Amino acid sequence: MTSTPLTPARVDAVIIDYNGVAGLQPTTPMWTRLADLADWPDGQLTSFQDAFWTPRNAYDAGELSDLAYWAKVLGHHPGARRLRTLRDTDTAMWIRTDNRVLDILHRARQPGLPMVLLSNAPHFLSDVLDATDWRRELMTDALYSARLGLCKPDPAAYKHALAATGIDDPARVLFIDDREDNCQAAAELGLRTLHYTGHPAQLEAQLLRPGPTAAFRAPAYPRGTSC
User: Fold this and answer.
1) SS3 of 49, please?
2) How far, in Å, are 51, 77, 150, 163, 225 from residue 88 at the CA level?
3) What is the per-residue pLDDT across 85-111, written as a single tens digit (0 to 9) for each?
4) How far apart are CA 178 and CA 122, in angstroms?
């Protein structure tokens, strides 16, 4: 991976991903429980996860209803009660948060620093996240793929998020995500990026630098390289 030297720049706004940054990844027992509820054969968790993810982008983009999504995963339509159980269990896997990350965001929060959540999430999960205290307290706005009708790394998703910050210059906005392809797409639009790899010290270094104004150091990735 190639990057230019680190240079200091002022943070005027932050766009942050949810899952893998503020949100914790599901544990293996959670995946196993969901597979059991789907009546998936024992010992075939990987095949269940493949079935789960294959139509997920369309579900996250709001192109599939809960019923249509789970029918694709299962290969048949579930009944109404089973559908609710699968949807609720699925949602519960994604709502756990990393308190270390939230603490850093609380400490970084200040008047005049917009923080916008940009997440690939289906409608029901979006509604649950919007009702959380941390979302209401920390984020000036939250954009979800199901409501936008598109998913990261579609460039339009970042343009919507940038507009939500109220900042015209993307070079003054820090985008934080745990996926390289999402960071790359943001960098190609001029946003500064932080590829978060699960270490809160990364966020502290970017968002809690000392000084009269918020500042950060982040690689300025040339076009065509990964972040």
Assistant:
1) helix
2) 18, 17, 23, 32, 38
3) 999 999 999 999 999 999 999 999 988
4) 19
